[in-house]
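2024-03-11 09:14:02 INFO receiving multi-entity request
2024-03-11 09:14:02 INFO entity count = two
2024-03-11 09:14:03 INFO echoing inputs for audit
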Amino acid sequence: MADRGELDVVGIGNALVDVLTHAEEGFLAHQSLVKGTMHLVDEPRARELYDAMGPGVEMSGGSAANTVVGVASFGGRAHYVGKVREDQLGEVFAHDLRATGVGYDTPRAADGPPTGRCLILVTPDAQRTMSTFLGASVRLGPGDIDRSLISRARILYLEGYLFDPPAAQDAFRAAAAIAHAAGRKVSLTLSDPFCVGRHRKAFLDLVEHHVDILFANEAEICALYEVGDFDAALARVRGHCEIAALTRSAKGSVLVSGTRVHIVDAHPVDAVVDTTGAGDLYAAGVLYGLSQGRDLPTCGRLGSLAAAEVIAHVGARPMVPLAQLAGPILG
Amino acid sequence: MADRGELDVVGIGNALVDVLTHAEEGFLAHQSLVKGTMHLVDEPRARELYDAMGPGVEMSGGSAANTVVGVASFGGRAHYVGKVREDQLGEVFAHDLRATGVGYDTPRAADGPPTGRCLILVTPDAQRTMSTFLGASVRLGPGDIDRSLISRARILYLEGYLFDPPAAQDAFRAAAAIAHAAGRKVSLTLSDPFCVGRHRKAFLDLVEHHVDILFANEAEICALYEVGDFDAALARVRGHCEIAALTRSAKGSVLVSGTRVHIVDAHPVDAVVDTTGAGDLYAAGVLYGLSQGRDLPTCGRLGSLAAAEVIAHVGARPMVPLAQLAGPILG
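2024-03-11 09:21:47 INFO inference complete, emitting structure
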């Protein structure tokens, strides 16, 4: 890496290109998809679904990648680790990260499955339902984790989705160990309630012993603790992580740290167009705030602001510089 | 082809995937690009420009392809002929056409240059400036022209851009000859003032002897006749084509047929976001109207309506079914 200076956030995740299309509720039912969640699909199923869906728009995505793009958009120094293949969509993914100022130099796979993609169906209620073909993401392994890179970032951010490709779990654990050894913070998003279901035991162990900053929405934190209501989940998580930032859609978010609980309203939005990226961008705001030493309520407001920007248009990455929008909050 | 029934429009053009990004005026100047026009670039230059530009959104494009998608969106039966390669962007292009109901079965190139792309810079004034790498489009030739397909379409629509790849000119002339032999109409768009500059003599010959329905904007028709004002160009063209549909941006359009001249207002738009596809969709409305035997003023209004829809959002293809919007015009 040319620049050896300190970084604010390094994110690690499944590198995906999003294919967004509008769909009716009936299409989801016909395809046996559960609205608002992420489904893993293999290549033949991805092709079948793609053939059945309407014309698409391709935009770089990937949960943690969207988050680090958000951090960079706030003015933070961000880097990304994730695997694409040497193909056209891999080029698109790399270009779009670098063009937003995010460092990215994970070696591309020269063979194996193509660059991963996420087929996103946006229903008339602006909800997104995702079908992910992991593709080359499954090739990410511990060999892709650069000790010096992880060590010089204030916060390491890991997506729960990274537990789906088996080799990536090792990369995940290796990165977390390096970060802690360097005295850095480790943050995790639980990503999706189905994802929590697939990896619940591992996630519980991580949250109880290895994670400093946890991101989850209501469904995910309830799935983690197998409880039916948010308050019960809140009581459980507060003893484990230094900070938990829990999102509740239109009800805003709750940030918990030890005995302190901060309730932050959602940022107003004229019209919700597409919720893709809402959680990713909320995390971006909180992580940027934390990396700059801001207090928790301010971090929460930055998260709400970034989420509001991204749900007001199609696509999971900000369309205007968040640094510009954040002026009134950061003073 | 499975369906052997009559078609409304067959379009032939350069098959391209658009890469859209926002750019400041200064970026255009720095890259020596003339705003509002189309520049041809080779692969190294396309790469250089792509590296320099911001994060993009990929959407299927191609001038005539956008037009036939518009015809299908009005409810017309449309088919497309154009060449992509067997690669990821080629798949995207084919998917997006078929998903909108346009027939498309031009064999993909198994080798040679990758699927063509058009780098589109949208400036804050909503103007688009295009840099096209033709890619696999240059492989389109007379062998790709299916006599039966061309013969059963009421209107053959050809884009002027098709004169840029040399082999495509032969495909162009072959298709026009088949259409006329079958008693069909041949229509042409002049595409771009620089394109007219490159092929002026050939275009003049086409317009004077082979084209029944001509599309051009003010700059293009003036470039064709090397005259400085619209009225002079109008006087020249009316003797040549059965119908000329001439667009004038916010000033609407003028449709000329023999001694009749119809002036059609632009359709109102709340906010112009991105002019990409305005001309393509105007042509879609006029062609759909003509294929249904509508009178010229109605055809012009359908064109204005379709253009208004497409300039109100990012991207060159309609986001809502034009058939739905056209109700008040078609009664």
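2024-03-11 09:21:48 INFO post-check: Residues 7-13+61-105+138-330 of chain B form a domain with the UDP-N-acetylmuramoyl-L-alanine:D-glutamate ligase fold (CATH 3.40.1190.20).
2024-03-11 09:21:48 INFO post-check: Chain B has one domain: 7-13+61-105+138-330.
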